[in-house]
């Protein structure tokens, strides 16, 4: 059995997937790299097969009809043989020195027979044109270098939430919790990292800048204009986060508080994008979204109405909406989130 399975979802990724794959090869035979060709029409499939032939003990090529990012991750979970599971998008990469430290920590965890469900590391915004690189670290919130539980965590700062980039899950936990990401849907990385959390009992934090999250590729799904264009998918994921996890059933108070805060920031992003679009249709969708929360999660609704972030997205009138967007832009720069 492999120590770590890394799935690389690929759709028309021929121009940048090589750099991603090459950054993962130094893991050697302890790692399997699952390149999932999600119905590409360029040279992605051929490149995946070439790597599989060159590194038959490390790389596997998986081909499927186009199902979107989530279905590519689902395929990775189905095919994974590693004890632990990591998703690396094809336009991102990993830092090799940090990678080797992560693998050493995983080996130590396994050799000590520790049942760690979630391993966390730092990630770096590789933002094109940015003078300084924003590093998201967790050393203020999480104990380092030892297994711990949710009772041992401190409060997370705004913009410091766990993302797909920072998470390495135990593979069997993902299967046992029944994680199934929706097809043909963007922004499912929020569901990937959020939905399994109530099943996580033991965690481990490695304070290394492992994942390199590239921002700036033309047509990238996280560009604001594209997110507004795909706002219905952002809203869909936002609602699924509520539907798939009933926070009232999350027993650990610190975990419940973290998950509520995580859900709040995703909801604020949804609301700001709806405001930012400026259309009457999307302003109506924002109103409907708030009504949805009022019906399905009163705690979240009250937090959104009464907290600082909630007040930000509910300022009345056109002037209020301008203030909301302006405050959001300032917080983007101060906090550093995309």
| Beta-strand percent range | 15-25%
Helix and strand run = EHEHEHEEHEEEHHEHHHHHHH
The global form is globular
The major β-sheet equals:
9 strands, mixed
Overall pLDDT score: 90
Distance between the termini: 37 Å
The rounded Rg comes to 20 Å
What structural class do the secondary elements suggest?
Answer: alpha/beta
How many β-strands, per DSSP?
9
Total count of helical runs of at least 4 residues: 13
The poorly predicted ranges are none
Helix content: 40-55%
Can you give me a brief rundown of this structure?
The protein has 338 residues and is α/β, with parallel strands linked by helices. The chain has 13 helices and 9 strands.
Give an overview of the whole structure:
It is a single chain. The protein has about 350 residues and is of the alpha/beta class. Strand 2 (about 30-40), helix 2 and strand 3 form a beta-alpha-beta unit. The protein is globular, with a radius of gyration of 20 Å. Strands 1, 2, 3, 4, 5, 6, 7, 8 and 9 form a nine-stranded mixed beta sheet that branches. Helix content is about 45%, strand content about 20%. It starts with a strand and ends with a helix.
Question: Main traits of this protein?
Answer:
338 residues, alpha/beta, 13 helices
Produce the secondary structure layout.
Elements: E1 2-10, H1 17-24, E2 31-38, H2 44-54, E3 59-64, H3 68-79, E4 82-87, E5 93-94, H4 96-111, E6 118-127, E7 134-136, E8 167-170, H5 171-176, H6 189-194, E9 203-215, H7 224-229, H8 231-244, H9 253-277, H10 280-296, H11 298-306, H12 308-313, H13 317-335
Helix pairs in contact: 8-9, 8-10, 9-10, 9-11, 10-11
């Amino acid at each position: 059995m492999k120590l770590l399975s890394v799935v690389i979802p690929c759709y028309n990724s021929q121009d940048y997937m090589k750099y991603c794959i090459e950054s993962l090869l130094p893991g050697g035979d302890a790692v399997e790299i699952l390149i999932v060709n999600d119905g590409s029409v360029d040279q992605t499939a051929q490149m995946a097969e070439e790597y599989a032939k060159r590194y038959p003990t490390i790389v596997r090529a998986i081909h499927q009809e186009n199902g979107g990012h989530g279905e590519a991750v689902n395929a990775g979970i189905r095919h994974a043989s590693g004890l632990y599971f990591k998703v690396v998008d094809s336009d991102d990469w990993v830092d090799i020195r940090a990678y080797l430290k992560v693998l050493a920590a995983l080996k130590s965890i396994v050799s000590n027979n520790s049942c760690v469900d979630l391993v966390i590391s730092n990630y770096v915004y590789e933002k094109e044109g940015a003078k300084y690189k924003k590093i998201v670290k967790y050393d203020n919130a999480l104990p380092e270098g030892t297994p711990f539980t949710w009772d041992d965590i401190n409060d997370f700062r705004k913009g410091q939430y766990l993302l797909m980039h920072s998470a390495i899950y135990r593979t069997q936990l993902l299967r046992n919790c029944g994680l199934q990401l929706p097809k043909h849907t963007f922004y499912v990385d929020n569901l990937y990292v959020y939905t399994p959390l109530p099943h996580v009992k033991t965690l481990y934090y490695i304070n290394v800048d492992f994942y390199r999250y590239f921002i700036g590729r033309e047509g990238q799904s996280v560009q604001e204009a594209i997110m507004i264009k795909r706002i219905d998918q952002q809203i869909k994921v936002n609602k699924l986060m509520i539907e798939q996890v009933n926070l009232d059933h999350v027993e650990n108070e610190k975990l419940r508080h973290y998950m509520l805060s995580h859900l709040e920031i995703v909801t604020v992003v949804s609301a700001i994008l709806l405001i930012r679009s400026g259309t009457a249709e999307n302003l109506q969708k924002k109103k409907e979204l708030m009504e949805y929360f009022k019906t399905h999660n009163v705690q979240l609704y009250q937090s959104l109405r009464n907290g600082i972030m909630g007040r930000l997205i509910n300022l009345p009138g056109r002037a209020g909406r301008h203030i909301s967007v302006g405050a959001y832009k300032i917080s983007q720069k101060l906090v550093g989130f995309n």
